[in-house]
Structures are given as C-alpha cells and as structure tokens.
Amino acid sequence: MQQRMPGRLQLVTADVLSIQDHCSGKRLLDSLAPPPISLRTRRIGAISKPSFFVQRPGSSQASAEEVGVVKCICLPLREDTHVLLDKFIQDVLHFHHIFHSPSLPFLVERLYDAVDRGEDVDIGQLVLMLAICCSSTYTWTRYDDDRGLFGRAEDANSQAAGWLTTALDTIHDAHLAAHTSMACIQGMIVVYFIMCSLEGISARTRLLHAQTIAMAHVMGLHSIDAPNANANANPIRQSTVQAEVGRRIWWHLADTDWMLSRLSLPQQGSYLILPFQMAVRKPCNTNDEDIVDGCEIVDRPLEEATSVSYLLQRIRLAELLFDLGWHGKSANSTSEEAEYLGVMEADMKLRQFMRELPSFFRLENSATLSTLPGSDIRRSSNITIQRYTLNMIFHGQICKIHLPFLAKGTIHPGFAYSHDSCLTATQRIICIEHQLRADISTFTLLRQRMNIKFRSIFIACVVLVLDGCLASSAEGGAKGSNATIADAWEILHDAKDQSPVASELLQLSIQILQKHKATHPALEMMKRENYNKRAAPAGENGPTDAEPIRGSSWPNDAELWPSEAERESAGLGMLWQTIQGRGREWNDFFWGLGPPLM
C-alpha cells in the first residue's frame, strides 16, 4: 500500500531536486553571445543590401583590430512590410500553414513599435520578418505589380538572396543567444522552404531542419498535450491560440521529417522525430478566425474545407510513409519477393489514401467544384493549388515505388503491374501539369521557382526515358509514351531558366535516349518542334499567362543534341544505378529535388 510522505519531507525533496534543475546547463557563456544589431528602415525599393556593418560611434581607427563595428539590418518601411505580409498570407502561407494569420499584423506592429522607440527587438520576431521578406520577394510575380512596391517582378526577385542571407545570419545569432520562440521556429521553417526551392535538400537545408526540430524540443512543442505536464512549466499551454499554433508547427516538422526519410539522402530510413516520443494532438480542422484565446476550438469534419485541410492531409500522408518505412524490410534484406510484396502493400495504401481524400481534393471532382459560387472556399485558388499538388505527389509516389520493377515488367508478367502503373502515373503527372498551365494564377508563374512539383516531373522523365530505351520496337515505348516524353522535355525546358536541375535533367535524358534509341520517335518529334518554332513568325508561340516560357528561348541544335562523346558518357547504366539507389549524377537529382510536400 502506497503511503504519502509527510509535508516536510515533500518540501525537502522538492528543494533538493530543484538543485538539479538549477545546474542543468542553463548558464551561458557571455563570450559566445551575438553582437548587438542596429535596425533601420527604408523604402524597400531602395534596399540593395539588407545587412551591412558600420563603425561603432567613438571607436578608434588607429588599429584595424581595435575598430568596433556594428551590424546593421535595414528593414522595409512599416507600410511596405504590411504589403509583403499580405502577399505572403495570400500566396505562400497555405503551403505551410503553421501560423495564426490574424496575429501576424500585430506581430509586425510590435516589432516596428520597438524599432521606432529604439528598444531591443525580439530576435525571433526579427527572424520571422526577414523570412517573410525573403519569401514574398522570391515568389513575387507580375500579378503583384499592382501592389506598388516594385517596378518589375525581377526587381523583387533580385532582392530575395539578400533577405535569405540576412535571415540565415540572424538565425545563427538566435542560436548564439540560446533564443527560443515560436516566431523564430516559424521563420526557420519559411527559410527552409525557400532554400529547398533554391538548392533542394542540401546539407544546409538538412542542418536547418535539424536545428528547427531542436528548438521545438527545447520549447516543449513535442509534449504540448502530455497528460501529466505542468501548465506553468510550459507557458504555451496557457494560451488557446499558442497551443494550437504549436501543434501545427510540431506536426509540420514531423511530417517533413518523415517525408525526408523517404528520399535517397543520408537521412533515408532514419528519423529525428518518433511518434512514441511525442504527446501532441493533431491540429483541429478549423479556420484561424475561429481560434480565440479562452474559447474551446470546434474541430470540424474533414470533409469541410478549412485553412488547415492541406496540412491535415500532409500529416496523413506522412504517417502512411512513416508506417511503410518503419515496418518495411530491413536494409540487409535481399528477398525480391518480400520487396515486391512491400511495393504492392505501399501501392494499396497510397491508393486508399487518395480514395479517402476529402472530395474537394479529388481531381476528378474539378468540374463539379467549378460550378460552386466564387465565395465558396472549395473554389479558392489555395484549395485548387493544393488539389493539384496532392494529386501530383500521389502519382509521383506511385512511380517511385514501382520504378525498381519497371524494367522487369517489360519481360516478366509477374511484374507487369509495376510497368503499367509507372506509365499510367507518368501520363497523369504530365496531364496535371497541362491543367496547371491552363490555370491563370500567381502559382502558374511561380511554380517553376519551387521544387514542390519537380520531383514528380523528374521521376516521370526517368520512367519515360527508361521505358523508351528498353522498348523492343523502333516505334519506342508503350502507346502514347512517345508524345509524353516530348511533353516532359518541354516542361523541363520551360523551367530551365528557373531551375538548374531541370536544365541538367533535360540534357542528360536526351543524351541517354539518343545513345540507346537514336531513332526514338520522341527525338524526332523534338527536332521537328525545334524547327517549327524557329520557322514561326515573330510573336507566334510567344509567352502567355497559361504558358509563360515558350518559343523564343528554345535551345539551338548544338545545345539540345549531344555530341558523340556526350552520348557515350551518358550510359543507361547510370539510369539503372539510380533506380538501384547507387547512381551518382541521377541520384544527385533525387537528392536535390526535395520532398514532394514542402
């Protein structure tokens, strides 16, 4: 029978145990503290370099070693920042809905009030503001010209690199200061998203992801809903808004981590976040406006579209991928039969995931959704983009899981399902891309600056090139695949100025196909298309909103068609090694294209 300790013993025990908390490494070395930052404001069009150094007032110039310098960050004017924030909320936030959007304008006001009074600003809020400046300038298109901040979209885009560098420097300062805040975590996630679009899943982006998770752990986001947690020990629990935003942030980090483990990366098969080491409820399916401090949150049915519908489906997909990876075959398994059973199980679960999507995310319902009133959220541009994206990711995953058995499917009836599934999914990916082109919106222009779609396009290109190389007849691969290859190449060509990866993939895929199937119809179609575009009168095939980069910049024959030496160096073995996960050039593409949902 358990007996309670007397009150005096409880107090003594608590006092002694508090020594452990007091000595648990909370002391910081002053020598590691970041230098002070001076903030200034200026009209955004006049900011050529957001951060710079100036000599500290009163410092001596007698010796270079003695000269004190102060780091300065030049922020946009308050009203300019509100315009950038509005752009961010409208066009970018829905990709990573980890905010309570009604609170963001107040955060801007608090930051600028502190700047105007000459007070120290919260470095986490500063990180978030810099991240929003970077995101908004990077995704700025000609549709944003009416906002009045920039003369041309190119002027905005050219600022993005400076804002990104400044944001990364400030994140480093936050680490030196041992700063933790949800605003800082949100800013790091936004920066991660932009970095993935710029350079893919590089060592830098993986490190930033790990640092973000570490800060979230320190803040206790992984245990917001722990049953025995003390509300006073975790202040986030005391605010309805903060607790719900914390859940969104944690689950976003978790699903990103689980998706990263599916890529051909050093992290493949390993996780930084494990479900049994967290106590966090799923975010509620509710709109931001319905989350108010002190009021209970109403969790709406999943079939009802909200601002977090996409996040909740991300979580479902990530849990599915985690389950497949965690319970899948071991790294040392060599049984082909066991591996193929795992492929078929993954295929079944992915298709079940798509069947269970809310109706407004199912692509086959697009015609019905288009008849709804314009005010219906299911017709909003955000939901439309998310619908396209989810379907693109699904077909890309189908290609990926069946790709190792595509070649065998051409000769072995037992694997024919994989061959057919790959080609069908590939055609759907290209079809979705054409539907995206026909949708005149900001996303139509900025999508080529994001890796959010190119992993699926890349896998589709690999499938088509491999099928074309393995085809036994001179007519090329399966019926309809020849035109699809040409379509995929044109998509890559259209994106080559925005994505170096797309340009490299275009060249390499043409080289491989020409080496192994020089008479492939897709090559002939591409040559004819190249000739027709060059012969077209000026203005014909020019840019349109639906097809923004076509015609005039098509490469010449020397650029498009490889030399004999290039064809010899582009071996089919390179492609096959990639399928096995050991190729260098092709595998680098897989590494760099990023997770399908970002």
Automatic annotation (TrEMBL):
CDD domains in alphabetical order: fungal_TF_MHR (cd12148)
InterPro entries registered for this protein in UniProt: Sec_Metabolite_Reg
One Gene Ontology cellular component annotation held by this UniProt entry: nucleus
Entry keywords, A to Z: Nucleus
Region listing for Disordered, in residue ranges: 534-565
Primary location: nucleus
Subcellular compartments: Nucleus
PANTHER family found in the cross-reference section: CENTROMERE DNA-BINDING PROTEIN COMPLEX CBF3 SUBUNIT B, UNCHARACTERIZED TRANSCRIPTIONAL REGULATORY PROTEIN
Name used for this protein in its record: Transcription factor domain-containing protein
Annotated organism of origin: Trichoderma cornu-damae
